[in-house]
Amino acid sequence: MLALLCGLLPMGMSAQTFEMNDEAPNNPNNEPRPCHPVPSERQILWNETEFYAFYHYGMNTFTGKEWGNGDEQESLYNPLGKPDPEQWVTSVKAAGMRGGIAVVKHHDGFCLWPTSTTEHNITKGSGAYHNTNIADEFAKASKKHKMKYGFYVSPWDCNSIHYGTDKYVTDVFLKQCEELATYGSDQFEMWFDGANGGKGYYGGRNTNVSVDASIYYDIPNLRAKVHTIAPNCVMWGVGNEARWIGNEAGYSGVTCWAMGDRESGDINGWYWHPGESDAKATSGGWFWHSGETMKSSDLLFKTYLETVGRNATFILNCPPNNYGILPDATVNELKALGQKLHDRLGLDVYGITTPGATDYAKTATITANEERTGGNYQASLVADGNKDTYWAVNDESHTGEITFEWDAQKTIRYVVLQEPIRLGQRVKDFKIEYSTDGNSWTELASGITTTIGYKRIIPLNGDTANSYGTGYKAKKLRISITDSRACPLISNINIF
After folding, report:
1. Cβ(457)–Cβ(308) under 8 Å?
2. Using an 8 Å Cβ cutoff, are 383 and 417 in contact?
3. Superfamily of domain 41-345
């Protein structure tokens, strides 16, 4: 053990100078200890994006494929109009989204910016509009409209003759990521799927190349390079800073931990690995296809409740067409979704000036059965609109109860809860009850009140498909944390 300690000492310091200090760290405000694992700052900022767009656009838009082989002639890329990333951005902002990810290189290897790494890019396209630099214009439009942005760049490249060799990683893939990172140091996410290779053109080799993604793409070096240029850019997928939720249908588990894998995560996961749920807004594939239809705003609202409302982020694919714009049907349904988020959950949505849903938590008298001693942890802080303040109980308590009361009955339909995840995810189970008279209590949404995490949205009738309903006339609402990994902390509660 002494040898191990010596190995950990700074150069020039001997074991004889090592001293133990038994004094507890100064904690005058009695701040709760973190419940590990905890997120990095960039993961917190990523989580706060909540809802954002996927734009699958590229060679497949013009070939009708979902998955190119890499042998497509560059001239097939022929936009019928000037691609308009600003229209993409404003359309999804009207849906309540806070950012987007543009697909600028899919598995076919065709790049939507004038890269130095391959000739398989827009400069070799055809028509009047092929030279539009999608990466550059998308980044500029996002900044202009104060939207977060990032890029999908496929690690797998069916076109490159070098794929499967070290030269591909050093001279193609890493350089492409570096090029894309230079389009903005404020990128919030770079998206890497988990494709490990397969059949492809590969510069005329026409063979099957498979790799071990966990090793081949030199992820530690990639992560260091991207973070040097864009320090708040979370690397999704092979970057191991955020996880796929496990389906492409747009739902998270009713229980969802920000550790582990897939829909539900793992309470025993040893590092922070929050979930991102992806879904298609259209009836076709990920890329635009003639004749496809747009999903209804009602269905998309349901999906929002099952993703953002279940401690995941929600990336919704909105594919531009062969004119390089989102079709009218997509734009209209996105706008209708934004209206629902505004009217039902009080979201401040671009282009909507009417008052949104009333948050009844702000007008309630708020009490709790316990408040942490020392510092500032009273129950009323859950309604102060400050993400950095929170209600807390004492360390020995793993349960807690908070009650909202009004002078007159309020018709309520949704409860939104958030934990201050900077200190870890804690709540394992909770219960929501309401009272019409202030005396007798009835439980609501039984069976779906489990974990909370960054954000949980509970439709009080328990039905995400028909969540709005007639609501419940409440004189009081009580939220009871019935089990927690450590003393429960709640930073925000909204009642709509």
Report:
1. yes
2. no
3. Glycosidases (3.20.20.80)
